[in-house]
Amino acid sequence: MLIKMTVEDFAAEVASSSPAPGGGSVSALAGAQAAALLAMYCNLTFGKEKYARSEALLREILAEAERQRLALLAAVDDDTRAFEKVMAAYKLPKSTPEEKAERQAAIGEAFKEAARVPLAVCRRCVELLALLEKAAGAGNESAITDFGVANLQAFAGLTGAAYNVLINLAAVKDAVFVAECSAELADLRARGAAAYEKTLAYLEQQLKL
Prior knowledge:
CATH class: Mainly Alpha
Structural class: mainly alpha
Radius of gyration: 20 Å
CATH topology: Four Helix Bundle (Hemerythrin (Met), subunit A)
CATH architecture: Up-down Bundle
Largest sheet: none
Order of helices and strands: HHHHHH
Mean pLDDT: 96
Shape: elongated
Low-confidence stretches: none
CATH superfamily: Formiminotetrahydrofolate cyclodeaminase monomer, up-and-down helical bundle
Strand content: under 5%
Distance between the termini: 40 Å
Helix content: over 70%
């Protein structure tokens, strides 16, 4: 499993000539890192009298951030497995018309799955961006830069995963599936960008950037 690797080994695997893990897995990891930093922001706040009024809110946010962190870590491996299924489908025999038809069907299904996985990552990153917007100003001011990096990582995860949805949809011939995914992706990107910008504006004001 990729997520069981050391950071050094994972980076080396990404840097290798192997096409996977690639941008999809790295985008999922960016989302997981965003969730971890948001959890850190919450945990560094608890028990401090100055932020007592925010504790109930941040405990709710922490629980959700942890749920997203674990799911996004799982997606690091899911994305690579989906890509491997695409490669396996291309290797199916194609000597007869029947084999060719089965191979094309398998390729189509594999690309659908390869689009579904990063689309799910997009959903989770948008949820994180919404949580970050909600948490802005409620937590420990000493961790504001960690909070800011969480916002950047969540948006990077969303954007990178969106790229992977689009490139895989380009190989799918099911027009209904493509239209549904494209519409959802456009909505996710719009909502994610709006939340990211609001949190970024807060950060720039606080940090006087």
